[in-house]
């Protein structure tokens, strides 16, 4: 359970798991990102996207854990249901357009106040990186998003800001590694 020392060696079936809830701004692609994490591809149908709103599990052999992913998107009724059991939170912002800091901060605060357990690491993902022509613009938006969320995040939580594309898969591996790596520190 929590806080138990990690066993050295072993058969690899340590029973470790990380439950990651993926939420985000409307139309930022959080369900698509959740889907890509578990299937390795962009969801081409509404059916595939809808499947992401149920818990999906992938085995991470490198970290020796099961990663359970649920894409709650911007549906606040799903946040209320799943955020309190999250061991990792992914907050998705549309990185292809200018960041509306007030809206992002407000929505982010709503997630955190919606029962996110203390100490749960947060990974902020600027999705739709494939639509960003100018890398400098992408970096700038990353900084703006980090600042908008930093206030709500405070010093209490670990926050990482990454860029990814649920369409091309760019950056998704890093997102998964961060989620799993954070999960190991519990």
TrEMBL record:
Keywords: GTP-binding, Nucleotide-binding
InterPro entries in alphabetical order: P-loop_NTPase, Small_GTPase_ARF/SAR
CDD domains found in the cross-reference section: Ras_like_GTPase
Statement: the UniProt record of this protein carries the keyword Ribosomal protein: no
Gene Ontology MF term list: GTP binding; GTPase activity
Protein origin, superkingdom: Eukaryota
Record's protein name: Signal recognition particle receptor subunit beta
Taxonomic classification: Eukaryota, Sar, Alveolata, Dinophyceae, Peridiniales
